[in-house]
């Protein structure tokens, strides 16, 4: 077990296109994934991408607490910890929605980002099996945020207007931030 150092915005590893993983069952890949899980929970965050721990590989992980599942999603227990290797996303329909995001690579900051409301995603699990799911709302948002990291994209680059971008503490005090839209410090970072 190891807690890895998290790269912050400005580090070149966050701006590059990550490489596909050749063998998902490679022990070195499994070690990296185990360390990423420890790092994500320690941070704490609900998602993490390998470039955020200075490993430019196409690996993401996330989970969705049950109380964050949007209406229309199956199940009430949330989405369990999911590791996706070489993930792919396909938007479903053309609906988009805007919500506040945070990121472990931009500590203490948040901003409103528009994302596809509904997606399909697929990738390989660490045992080499295929994971294929349909997601909407917050679940879909988390997956899109994490996969963006694999293409060198951080959420401020997706923002329509930087006016809602700032420090969580200040946004929470601001009249432009309706109550309930700003995540608690550290609770939503991915
Ligand atoms: Ni992030």
């Amino acid at each position: 077990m190891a807690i890895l150092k998290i790269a912050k915005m400005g580090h070149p590893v966050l701006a590059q296109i990550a490489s596909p993983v050749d063998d998902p069952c490679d022990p070195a890949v499994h070690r990296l994934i185990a360390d990423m899980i420890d790092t994500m929970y320690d941070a704490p965050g609900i998602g993490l991408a390998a470039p955020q721990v200075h490993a430019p590989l196409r690996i993401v992980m996330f989970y969705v607490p049950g109380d964050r599942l949007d209406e229309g999603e199956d199940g009430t227990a949330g989405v369990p910890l999911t590791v996706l290797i070489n993930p792919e996303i396909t938007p479903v329909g053309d609906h988009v929605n805007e919500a506040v995001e945070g990121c472990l690579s931009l500590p203490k900051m948040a901003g409103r980002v528009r994302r596809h409301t509904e997606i399909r995603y697929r990738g390989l699990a660490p045992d080499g099996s295929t994971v294929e799911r349909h997601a909407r709302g917050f679940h879909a948002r988390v997956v899109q945020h994490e996969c963006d990291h694999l293409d060198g994209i951080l959420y401020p680059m997706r923002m329509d207007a930087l006016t809602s971008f700032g420090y969580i503490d200040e946004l929470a005090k601001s009249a432009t931030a309706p109550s309930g839209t700003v995540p608690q410090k550290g609770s939503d970072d991915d």
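The chain has one domain: 12-173. The two ends are 20 Å apart (CA to CA).
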